[in-house]
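Colleagues,

For the teaching module next term, I've prepared a clean inverse folding example: a structure given as tokens, and then the sequence designed for it. I'd like students to try predicting residues themselves before seeing the answer, so please don't circulate the second half yet.
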């Protein structure tokens, strides 16, 4: 694995800390239930299934508190990233209608914010999480900001009826990947294909960050220049969830490991089919699976093999400070 320099984003680091403090101030006494020590194991206990989480739910916030929560999201995520997160939350109401379930179960406001540590006192972080959404932010040191792991899912992937019929929250991740797959030559497809049917879910989900040790499939530098440009555009859909101050330097790290980055596919390379793809390099692991519910239910994942939960940034932060804690090797 190549070295893992920090993502340098000093201005956005200060903005994130300011927004987190403002949210805590708006929450008042409720901020206590939405704040854990940075050293708490809860920081690593992320999930994407329905249910309650530690922290404060959006449904339990008053209007001013919701505004502060929205500002915290905007401090870290790009405008498209905020829009996608909010669309995933709103999709719970659509899913409730499709399933005939209760809004108490499929609740668009059952998404939780939790702060770890003291904002601005490094290291610290925060999390936004609920069904089909998990964003894990670590600010290990001034200017060192990590967002991974990030999970995004959509069910239904394509809304089957009603006034929003045909809408896809994760359209770009789907369409660009198929465009790239269809551009592959027969020899390239043979190298990229893991197997003839979809894997059925992402592999490196919660608690399985090390499940995919080595990249498989077709090397990125075996693609033609137009194909490489298309692959880069696809990667930017995921990395573009972050504000530019975080995403741009991260993309430099991805490009630095390009020679060791691979793309792999499982299942048909056809719209409407159940398929899975993976983009894997020294600083990047993207997984996308659209298999469940008759290939209309997406799970997608963005991880940084070197720096999930700010791991590598924390190693440098704690270097020379014997006895320091709050990170996992």
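(Answer key — instructors only)
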């Amino acid at each position: 694995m190549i070295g893992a320099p920090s993502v340098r984003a000093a201005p956005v680091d200060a903005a994130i800390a300011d927004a987190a403090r403002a949210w805590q101030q708006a929450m008042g006494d409720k901020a206590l239930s939405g704040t854990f020590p940075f050293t708490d194991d809860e920081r690593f206990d992320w999930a994407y299934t329905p249910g309650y989480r530690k922290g404060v739910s959006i449904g339990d916030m008053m209007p001013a508190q919701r505004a502060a929560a929205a500002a915290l999201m905007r401090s870290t995520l790009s405008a498209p990233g905020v829009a996608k997160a909010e669309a995933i939350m709103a999709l719970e109401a659509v899913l409730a209608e499709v399933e005939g379930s209760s809004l108490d179960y499929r609740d668009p406001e059952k998404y939780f914010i939790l702060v770890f540590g003291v904002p601005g006192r490094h290291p610290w972080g925060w999390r936004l999480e609920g069904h089909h959404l998990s964003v894990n932010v670590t600010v290990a040191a001034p200017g060192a900001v990590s967002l991974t792991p990030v999970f995004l899912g959509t069910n239904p992937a394509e809304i089957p009826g009603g006034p929003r019929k045909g809408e896809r929250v994760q359209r770009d991740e789907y369409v660009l990947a198929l465009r790239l797959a269809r551009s592959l030559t027969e020899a390239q497809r043979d190298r990229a294909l893991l197997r003839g049917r979809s894997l059925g879910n992402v592999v490196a989900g919660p608690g399985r960050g090390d499940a995919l040790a080595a990249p498989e499939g077709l090397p990125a530098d075996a693609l033609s220049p137009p194909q490489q440009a298309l692959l880069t555009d696809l990667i930017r859909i995921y990395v573009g969830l972050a504000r530019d101050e975080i995403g741009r330097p991260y993309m430099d790290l991805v490009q630095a490991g390009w020679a060791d980055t691979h793309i792999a596919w499982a299942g048909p390379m056809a719209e409407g089919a159940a398929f899975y793809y993976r983009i894997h390099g020294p600083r990047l692991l993207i997984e996308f699976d659209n298999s469940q519910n008759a290939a209309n239910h997406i799970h997608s994942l963005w991880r940084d093999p070197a720096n999930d939960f700010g791991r590598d940034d924390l190693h440098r932060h704690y270097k020379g400070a014997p006895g320091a804690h709050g990170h996992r090797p």
